[in-house]
Amino acid sequence: MSQPLLLNLHGVSCGFAQQPVVQDLSLHLNSGDIACLLGPSGCGKTTSLRAIAGFEPLQAGEISLNGKVISRQGFTLPPEQRRIGMVFQDYALFPHLTVAQNVAFGIRQHPRREQLTAELLELVKLSELGKRYPHELSGGQQQRVALARALAPEPLLLLLDEPFSNLDGELRRRLSMEVRDILKARGTSAILVTHDQEEAFAVSDHVGVFQQGRLQQWDTPFNLYHEPLTPFVASFIGQGYFIRGQLLSPDTVQTELGILRGNRAYSWPIGSAVDVLLRPDDIVPDAAGTLQARVSGKTFLGAATLYRLQLATGSQLEALFPSHAEHQPGEMVGIRIDADHLVLFPATGSQPTREALLPL
User: Fold this and answer.
1) Terminus of the chain with fewer CB atoms < 10 Å: N or C?
2) CA–CA distance, 205 with 145 (Å, rounded to integer)
3) Burial level of 28, CB count in 10 A (0-12/13-18/19+)?
4) Strands 273-278, 343-346: parallel, antiparallel or unpaired by DSSP?
5) How many C-beta atoms surround the C-beta of residue 251 within 10 A?
């Protein structure tokens, strides 16, 4: 059963002076869902978050929260009246207040202040640290305090601006999962801003991919990876290479790797030149296969090894092999294509480069 609509952005544009940073942005978020705005630096994701929070006026479009318009051109409901919580990159805790006092700061008039504070500290696994001060905590613990403080007033929507960027890799991964569990346990809707797609996929129900101030695709992590709508989304999400092909039928393409057939039909004229996206998991080892590639590099990932491969034509590929299949640079390996979800785009004027195909 679908949840009711909570947040709706329609045709939103905003920026500085007459220079738009975000253009024609439309998206929606259902109650209880967690979303992420993802993209390279300077793409407009943080400006979008600030517009939702009420920190940036709109040049065009409209933002509604829980059925009420909170921003349009010439009108911006003050941030403190929006019932929106905010978790910042630098935690923004009060250094002179204890952990418990920080959490309770926004609910000082609440009749159940102490009980609610205790419940939130338990939720973020800091029950024993309520009397400590922020400087006595680790970075991960400080971020949990900031989260509990933002949740205390029971906001309709929680906004998180690169909340894990100051943490190291493993702590960042673990805390992002913990935050998702906490938000889901509370039924709190949230939007996260990040440039880390692994983090976005781990936390979010929906992800919006931005490029140069425009939303390229608003979709589930699965669809972004397997059903990208634009070449930019295809290249920014995950890893992969494009190879040139020619459309033989709506679902079949001729390539230097042979004839490939997918599970979807394309409406372009037969014979059209196309670029075929191949992910590392689309290419599997085949010792008995006739298709050969030379290993040009490798990265050990534990359960698998990511091999960089070069075809006889000079085209580049990447492939994930089981880690027990050990190959050395310069070695020839047999491969085959195992992809039933071929992703095609009209061919560009020149063959895409590696830099255009990997995440920024």
Assistant:
1) N
2) 24
3) middle
4) antiparallel
5) 16
The pLDDT tens digits for 340-355 are: 888 999 997 534 333 3
pLDDT tens-place string over residues 222-256: 999 999 999 999 999 988 899 999 999 999 999 99
**pTM metric for this prediction:** 0.87
Which residues 6+ apart lie within 8 Å of 260 measured at CB?
245, 252, 253, 276, 337, 339, 342
Residue 261's contacts (CB-CB under 8 Å, 6 or more residues apart) are 251, 252, 253, 342
pLDDT tens for each residue of 274-331: 999 999 999 999 988 889 999 999 999 999 999 999 999 999 999 999 988 899 999 9
Instruction: Give residue limits of the domains in the chain.
Output: 5-226, 239-357
Record: fold of 239-357: OB fold (Dihydrolipoamide Acetyltransferase, E2P) (2.40.50)
Domain 5-226 identical in fold to domain 239-357: no
Q: Contact at 8 Å (CB) between 228 and 219?
A: no
Which residue type sits at 58?
L
Q: Could you tell me the strand order of the sheet in which 157-161 lies?
A: 84-87, 157-161, 189-194, 34-38, 206-211, 214-219
Specify whether the CB–CB gap between 178 and 163 falls below 8 A: no
- Domain 5-226, CATH homologous superfamily name and number: P-loop containing nucleotide triphosphate hydrolases (3.40.50.300)
